[in-house]
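Problem statement: downstream parser choked on a complex file, so we are re-checking the raw output for the 5-O-phosphono-beta-D-ribofuranosylamine run. The parser issue turned out to be on our end (a line-ending mismatch), but while we're here, posting the original submission so the record is complete.
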Amino acid sequence: MPAITSSTCRLVVLISGRGSNMQTIVNTVREQGLPAQVCAVIANKADALGLHWAREQGIQATLVAHRDYATRKEFDQALAQAIDAHRPDYVLLAGFMRVLTPEFVEHFNGRLLNIHPSLLPAFPGLHTHEQALAAGVQWHGCTVHFVTPVLDHGPIVAQGAVPVLADDTPDTLAERILGVEHHLYAQVVRWLAEGRVSLDAMQRVHVHGVASRSFAVAPPESPWITTSKN
Ligand code: GRF
């Protein structure tokens, strides 16, 4: 866990497109008066809609376009430099659609988090909703995790589950999960800002004072099973 040196947890958010998770993070920090600040939003694509929204909010929003660099390594070096200028405690990938080099991941080791639209370790990579429907799973969801050099893999901070319904399409599933993504990332940002999150030597996540890090949308017409300790 990074030692948060000031009382404000400094966050840099990386996006590639719409930026609805980023918007939720910004709004959560502001509306809930968290001891955190979104110092910058950085996108790798010029047409990322989230850049405009962030600028309208008075947040420093910059473009580091991957197309301007000959190699993945050069892009990642430029990106790391742009991020480091803001001295972040945490870097949050929020719909950032680039595979990162091991050097980049190592540079931000323990400070780099991502949200992925599946219940990892199921369905890493792209087209997770198509993968879930093809597999016939009855629960799908999203995961906030620390980033390791392995794509869509790493210590899990929190997960949110949704039921898969009989007439679901990739689009309806994506929409149901996006609502949970916003809830989940907002919750994780609260924990980060409060300094509750740590990684142990086994690379397992601990969130101090929090008993459960799972969230779920109830299936329609399906009674919940309740358990008793007795
Ligand atoms: C989210 O579903 C995220 O999990 C995935 O891409 C989508 C980005 O949405 N990687 P947004 O840009 O945050 O609106």
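For whoever reads this later: The chain has two domains: 8-108, 115-218.
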